[in-house]
Amino acid sequence: MKITFFGGAQCVTGSKHLVEVGDYKLLLDCGMHQGKRSLVDGWNRNLPFKAEEIDAVILSHGHLDHCGTLPILVRDGFKGSIHCSDATADIVRCMLEDSGMLQEQIANDLNEKNTQGGFITPLYTQEDAKQVFPHLVPHPYFRSGHQWVTVNENIRFKLYDAGHILGSSVILLEIQDEGTKKTLAFTGDLGREDVPVIHAREYIEEEVDALIMECTYGNKNHRAISHVAGDLKEIVSTSIRTKGKIIVPAFSLGRTQELIYTLHKLVDAHEMPLLPIYIDSPLAQSFTEIFARHQEDFSDQVMREFKMKGESPFAFKNLIYTHTVEESKILNMKEGPLMVISASGMSEGGRVLHHLKHGISNPNNIVLITGYQAEDTLGRKIKDGISPVMILGESHEVRAQIKVLDELSAHADQSGLLSYLAHTKGVRHLFLVHTEMPQATTFKQVVDGLYPALSTTIPASGQMFEL
Ligand SMILES: [Zn+2]
Fold first, then answer.
1. Average pLDDT for 209-229
2. 127 Cα to the center of ligand 1, angstroms
3. pTM of structure
4. How far is the CA of 191 from the centre of ligand 1 (A)?
5. Are residues 59 and 78 in the same domain?
6. Distances from the Cα of 94 to the Cα of 35, 278, 424, angstroms
């Protein structure tokens, strides 16, 4: 059995891990590389393997850096099944269609400006994205019992709840390799233990020979999630005092719903001054509808607080969902105080760019960063205090206050990762993925100190291991 790490290897995007058992090729995730276009476009267009040779895919979850190049895989000749949890299948349909539309827009914009010399074809189109849908094979988590799903005569798998976003899964593979049983687990992205809205992550019951584990925050610990409410109250009070805007770039899936839920609780408890809160992302609205269809994945606390009372956690007074581009544009002209939550989470595209363009130079405004910002993204530059920054082709001085709420991260921190490792029995090989080198190196040092007998590796892109 061989594993080759093709993406999410010493970087946090493009997750793709190929497992080969005899002639059978099973791909874990098929994610998009994100960041500087000149750097990642070629990696995304040219998959590092022959699509028609891949027999099946298992997806950990529906974020684009884990599923975003599926349309290219299918366009290039993939014919097999794409296994995932049932909520992930709903999310992937929505996510890929939107991504196809965005890719068409990007290509159109570049061709109109004609700065690239020559005609740019979209990475993929909305129509390409739709070709993925018939391949999706949804499975429940089987919370009571965790049943095996057979892939072929040598491979079966189970999904455990990863507690990262709705539908996110840890994939446990059981492989018969030339008469020997081997187990391999892939965490996908791992949630923190006290994640809001969805169920907390589960631990694998079986022994695991090799664990492929994400390590996004391998070098730091988040403050307790309870700090979020206090910080949000303070940020809202500042905005009311200065009559400024709070601009929140947020992933339309996960972070937006967690923010809405947290704000809803603050408003209900009269702990936060009221101000208009706009959700300016049609995609976030679609995902919020998907959340409503998968209430079985809500945490017991959310069920107690809202569902039993017949209320939606995602609707409250002063919360306004915008739909059209015109409604979005009007927000740019509105006076504060107000909050606008808009995608994309790393400020690499979407409506949030227009809000940043109009608001980032006003010292009364606040830009609130709520998630991991990958290298070379606009979000990372803003978080790192760089000024001026380029937004939609123009240079803008950053005079707004920059606030960071890492606690809302959907990723486990160092102690959460260590706790997950401690709860996973029998691990002899640990591969650290979905991480940048400083984070991975620190985490490896800690793991090496705690588990000297464990073989811990930070695989490079393209590196292959035989197990
Ligand atoms: Zn993710």
1. 90
2. 24
3. 0.89
4. 9
5. yes
6. 22, 21, 33
